[in-house]
């Protein structure tokens, strides 16, 4: 069998722990035997990020902008424990935060619904696509551990020297401070990509924030969404018979739980982080969710929504058998290959991506799955496979 040829490379961002192991299995078993893979490889494993002072993360994001399609493995976001574990020079920022900052995109996440796995929320009949803003807020923060009494101020100095100054707090003792920001241009492109996506899916768009408390900051998001909708999308939405509506985040959460699904839920960066994990777990497993970051000018980065599955990795290191679900990582690869095929006009590559996804779902629907799914599947003939056995079962189906 001759392998499928590619024209433009895919930007490959390797990662950490159990997902790094899975990454190699997927390439060995499901990609390299069928495709003459052209990729520009960036090692975002924590050790290499440390060696390059995190320059590799920046380079990989710029490569994604250059080539237009990237696929990313889950990576460790260092905390105190990781700084010790890996003897890091410093506590680097979240690589996803860095990449999203550079690509300035919106992250669309949708659960993969399959036969035999029913959502915990029984009234969800259709997937809810979560559109997460990928720029700013707490992911691009500046923090200070306040050592003791003193005055904290918020200061903006305009180019002409004019100052806007507000007191944040008069500290009587130690405390903590955080500065966050966002950009009107980024919020506008977030609104636009959500509205375009809603039109392409012919689904309603919900957006929510906490504008009752954060009157200026979240109020800015609300107003920009409203303005973009009124100016550019109202007519198109009415023609398509779909609705845009804004509500408070707490109200949105309550409504989502009572809904039938089948809409796009636009969330600010942090809300989207938290809510997509909730959504994925409610639909079965964190590993059954697709995730793609789309920049305003149409550059794509595909990834899994879950982390590096640290607990399984430590078992793996001890030589114990693991049963880690690779579906989201496989769908990241298939998404990237399909998009590359579309952009380069390579039909075989697009068809291969379809077949790979089909084979993956087919394997699970035939009863062969990893432990996370075996626990909740209501199929009769369930067989729990190890991490590698599951990938090999997909290869047989492929
Ligand atoms: P996690 O990797 O998402 O895993 C949390 C738990 O969820 C696992 O212990 C496991 O439960 C279950 N799980 C997640 N993915 C699974 C899979 N593919 N198959 C089966 N079970 C799965 O989160 P974490 O362990 O809290 O974080 C580990 C590291 O990931 C952290 O250093 C964090 O910084 C990083 N992280 C990276 C990303 C990213 O790069 N996109 C996102 C989030 C977190 P059981 O243990 O019960 O089996
Ligand atoms: Mg998260």
How big is the Rg?
Answer: 22 Å
User: What is the 3D shape?
Assistant: globular
Mean pLDDT figure: 94
User: CATH first level of the largest domain: which class?
Assistant: Alpha Beta
Give, in spatial order, the strands making up the sheet with the most strands: 2-1-3-14-13-4-5-12-10-11
Strand content: 15-25%
In CATH terms, the superfamily of the largest domain is Isopropylmalate Dehydrogenase
How many individual β-strands? 16
Distance, first to last CA = 14 Å
Strand count, sense and barrel status of the largest sheet are: 10 strands, mixed
Class by alpha and beta content: alpha/beta
What name is given to the CATH topology of the largest domain? Isopropylmalate Dehydrogenase
CATH architecture of the largest domain: 3-Layer(aba) Sandwich
The ordered H/E elements are EHEHHEHHEEEEEEHEHEHEHEEHHHEHEH
Number of domain modules:
3
Helix share, percent: 40-55%
Low-confidence stretches: none
Bound molecules: NADP nicotinamide-adenine-dinucleotide phosphate, magnesium ion
Tally of DSSP helical segments:
14
């Amino acid at each position: 069998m001759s392998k499928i040829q590619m024209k433009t490379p895919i930007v490959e961002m390797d990662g950490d722990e159990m997902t790094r192991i899975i990454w190699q299995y997927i390439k060995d078993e499901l990609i390299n035997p069928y495709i003459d893979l052209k990729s520009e490889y960036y090692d975002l494993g924590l050790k290499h990020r440390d060696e390059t002072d995190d320059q590799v993360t920046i380079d990989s994001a710029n490569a994604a902008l250059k080539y237009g399609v990237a696929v990313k493995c889950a990576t460790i976001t260092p905390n105190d424990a990781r700084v010790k574990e890996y003897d890091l020079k410093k506590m680097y920022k979240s690589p996803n935060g860095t990449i999203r900052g550079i690509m300035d995109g919106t992250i669309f996440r949708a659960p993969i619904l399959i036969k035999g796995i029913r959502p915990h929320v029984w009234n969800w009949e259709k997937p809810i696509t979560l559109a997460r803003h990928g720029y700013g807020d707490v992911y691009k923060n500046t923090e200070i551990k306040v050592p003791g009494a003193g005055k904290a101020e918020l200061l903006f100095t305009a180019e002409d020297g004019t100052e806007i100054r507000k007191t944040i707090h008069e500290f009587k003792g130690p405390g903590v401070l955080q500065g966050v920001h966002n950009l009107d241009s980024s919020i506008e492109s977030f609104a636009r990509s959500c509205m375009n996506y809603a039109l392409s899916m012919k689904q309603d768009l919900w957006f929510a924030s906490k504008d009752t408390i954060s009157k200026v900051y979240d109020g800015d998001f609300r107003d920009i969404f409203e303005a973009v909708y009124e100016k550019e999308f109202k007519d198109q939405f009415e023609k398509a018979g779909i609705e845009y509506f804004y509500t408070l985040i707490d109200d949105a959460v309550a409504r989502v739980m009572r809904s039938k699904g089948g809409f796009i839920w636009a969330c600010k960066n942090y809300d989207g982080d938290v809510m997509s994990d909730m959504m994925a777990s409610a639909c079965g497993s964190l590993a059954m969710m697709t995730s793609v970051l789309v920049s305003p000018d149409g550059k794509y980065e595909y990834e899994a929504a879950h982390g590096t599955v640290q607990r399984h990795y430590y078992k793996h290191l001890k030589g114990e058998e693991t049963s880690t679900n690779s579906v989201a990582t496989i769908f990241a690869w298939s998404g990237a290959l399909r998009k590359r095929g579309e952009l380069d006009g390579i039909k075989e590559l697009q068809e291969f991506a379809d077949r790979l996804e089909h084979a993956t779902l087919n394997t699970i629907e035939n009863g062969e799955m990893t432990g996370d799914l075996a626990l909740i599947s209501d199929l009769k003939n369930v067989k729990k496979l190890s991490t590698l056995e599951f990938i090999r079962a997909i290869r047989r189906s492929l």
